[in-house]
Design goal:
The complex is a heterodimer of chains A (355) and B (277). By secondary structure, chain A is α+β, with helices and mostly antiparallel strands. Chain A contains 8 helices and 20 strands. Chain A has a 6-stranded mixed sheet, sandwiched between helices. Classes of the chains: A alpha+beta (355), B mainly alpha (277). At the A-B interface, strand 6, helix 2 and helix 4 of A face helix 8 and helix 9 of B. The complex binds adenosine-5'-diphosphate (ADP) and magnesium ion.
């Protein structure tokens, strides 16, 4: 068990900068998820913690011990790879015991550790098989088992569920969470899937372009995204964005409609802003009321539990997420109200949140 | 199956059969001549099998010629060359496959460059260099030359096999507690066995049948290899085909044994199941 401190970490491949001045403290036992689009440097950061990539500048500490120069094998961490990276010429049991054998653990202890891990993950009937005789889900479990037999200081996961089908992914996601609850080890989990991030994380680190965009607990990121990137990345269906300018105490959109400035938000006259509103915070109202808009239904996407209704409004395609079935049909006129308290206002120049 | 498919399959099989016959016929002829008594060699020249077969040539080659020595020499030289080249090429190929290092581009270029010259050009300088070192007329000298000439290609060959092994496996091993060398030895090498077998086989055969350098660098029976030895059946006025062919058949045996030994590893697919599914 350990804390991990990442201080002013920078990484360049040749002359290409990949990570820029990353600072992050991970507490003992915390489950931190690095999330961001493909290519933003998540894996690189994780591999630097593991010792698989050199650190260009900055410092990484595990439990206050600087590990920049420490070989991966001496960092006492375990990692689950997206590709699983099971040793093809070894049985499941040998795959799991490899790390213990390298550490010259006594044979009885190895047997016990494998028994315990296999029990936790339901691998008992598979122990004598080779990886090629396993299904994708089983391989994933073996990769997890290989990580947990050793009781390392920290677990690193690099998109461990990406190669599974949707159902299995959901199941393993819950299992990983349960495992973390029972083992309680410090974990760093990389994913590009914001649902995985939301459901698993104690704390989410949203990354984009080699820079940390926001760090916070999942609901923080959902309720108060720090900038346009986080606002657009977290949440599904994605947040609606409407561009406008502040004019005479209201926000005037490019097509001439007006949006009231939420309470407590101060804008300069003429300031260029982007208004964000989540589809679930757009209401369909019975008739015209103060601050409502008239629109026409463009497209209806039922998702089973709810329905995504697309309308043309404020000069663009606006999504509404409603739990009411049959609330709208294509071509039907609608009245729509935005929930003033749940608008997100961003400065268009800096892309940062204003309120 | 439709009629057309059957006809196509039959044609395909026939074509393959014809090719196999074409490829094997010289070997068959080798065998045939080796068991034909000298008296019948010219009178029954174009018969597929002589009216009377005998092992007299084999007996002569094994008991009255230096061929047993030649075989031994060839075995030593080819075996040593194959083993040394494979070890060097494995290490070099691994570095080529996994590491970025200064001058890599130039080293690859140089390795390629060495493959571009006709060997005949290099014989004189080779001889000049080896002779003061006392390495002409010696098996060691031959091994050194063969190793030098086989390492570049073998390195590229091994590199391509290492390229086929996912890097994640070594990363996983290193996180599991292995040093890079342990990961190489315990994880990568076992998965590269087919590649190693192929390289061993390739180099062994190349050294086994090498004539040019063996001819130029060796004089005197004690260090002669078998391809050079074959030439001793060619005299100014005649060629003793029967004995030559018998020696040729015998020379096939070690190569066949060698491939029999390594063929188990030549099967691919050992890496299946390493990553994804
Ligand atoms: N070994 C490498 N050499 C050069 N560039 C690399 C290397 N590894 C990753 N990169 C680059 O670094 C960036 C971040 O990669 P990565 O950390 O794998 O992203 P992510 O995991 O977030 O998808 C990408 O643009 C990628 O092309
Ligand atoms: Mg990645």
């Amino acid at each position: 068990m350990a804390s991990i401190t990442i201080q002013s970490i920078t990484k360049t491949f040749g002359t290409v900068p990949v990570l820029n001045d990353i600072d992050l403290s991970i507490a003992d036992g915390e489950f931190v998820v690095l999330v961001g689009p493909s290519g933003c440097g998540k894996s690189t950061l994780l591999r630097m913690i593991a010792g698989l990539e050199d650190i260009t500048a900055g410092e990484i500490r595990i439990d206050d011990r600087r590990i920049n120069e420490v070989a991966p094998k001496d960092r006492d961490i375990a990692m689950v790879f997206q590709s699983y990276a099971l040793y093809p010429h070894m049985t499941v049991a040998d795959n799991m015991s490899y790390s213990l054998k390298l550490r010259k653990t006594a044979r009885e202890k190895i047997t016990d550790a494998i028994g315990a891990a296999a029990g936790k993950l339901g691998l008992d009937p598979l122990l004598e098989r080779r990886p090629k005789a396993l299904s994708g889900g089983q391989r994933q479990r073996v990769a997890m088992g290989r990580a947990i037999v050793r009781h390392p200081k920290a677990f690193l996961f690099d998109e461990p569920l990406s190669n599974l089908d949707a159902r299995l992914r959901e199941q393993m996601r819950a299992e990983i969470k349960r495992l973390h609850k029972s083992i309680g080890a410090t974990s760093v989990y990389v994913t590009h899937d914001q649902i995985e991030a939301m459901t698993l994380a104690d704390r989410i680190v949203a990354m984009h372009g080699g820079i940390i965009q926001q760090v916070g607990n999942p609901l923080d990121l959902y309720d108060r995204p720090a900038n346009l990137f986080v606002a657009g990345f977290i949440g599904s269906p994605a947040m609606n964005f409407v561009e406008g300018h502040c004019r005479a105490g209201a926000i005037e959109t490019d097509d001439g409609s007006k949006i009231a400035v939420p309470d407590g938000v101060h804008l300069k006259d003429g300031q260029a802003v982007t208004v964000g509103v989540r589809p679930e915070h757009v209401r369909i109202v019975a008739g015209p009321e103060a601050g409502s808009y008239a629109a026409r239904v463009d497209l209806v996407e039922p998702t089973g539990f709810g329905t995504i209704v697309h309308v043309r409004l404020l000069g663009q395609d606006l999504k509404i997420y409603t739990l009411e079935r049959g609330a709208a049909e294509v071509g039907q006129p609608l009245h729509i109200a935005l929930d003033g308290a749940r608008l997100h206002i961003f400065d268009r120049e800096t892309t940062n949140r204003i309120g | 199956m439709t009629r057309k498919r059957i006809v196509l399959t039959v044609l395909h099989r026939l074509a393959v059969l014809a090719y196999v016959a074409f490829a094997l016929f010289p070997l068959f002829w080798l065998l045939k001549v080796s068991v034909t008594p000298t008296s019948l060699l010219y009178t029954e020249g174009i018969r597929l099998w002589p009216s009377q077969a005998s092992l007299e040539h084999y007996r002569f080659v094994l008991t009255h010629s230096s061929f047993p020595t030649f075989f031994l020499n060839s075995t030593i030289v080819s075996g040593a060359t194959a083993v040394i080249v494979t070890i060097v090429a494995s290490l070099a190929g691994y570095a080529m496959s996994r590491f970025v290092f200064r001058g890599k581009y130039w080293i690859v270029g140089l390795l390629l460059l060495t493959q571009m010259f006709p060997l005949v050009m290099l014989i004189a300088p080779m001889f000049k260099m080896l002779s003061p070192l006392g390495l002409t007329n010696s098996l060691t000298g031959l091994v050194i030359v063969y190793v030098a000439f086989n390492v570049p290609f073998a390195t590229f060959l091994m590199q391509s096999f290492f390229d086929g092994i996912p890097k994640d496996l070594e990363d996983a091993a290193m996180i599991d507690g292995a040093t890079r060398f342990t990961a190489f030895r315990q994880i990568v090498l076992p998965l590269t066995l087919p590649g190693i077998a192929a390289t061993l086989g390739f180099v062994f055969t190349a050294a086994w049948s090498e004539l040019l350098f063996a001819l130029m660098l060796i004089s005197g029976n004690q260090a002669t290899t078998f391809p050079v030895g074959l030439l001793s059946f060619v005299s100014k006025f005649s060629v003793d085909f029967g004995q030559m062919m018998a020696a040729g058949v015998l020379a096939l045996i070690p190569a066949c044994l060698f491939f029999l030994l390594i063929q188990r590893y030549l099967v691919q697919g050992l890496t299946a199941g390493a990553v994804k599914g």
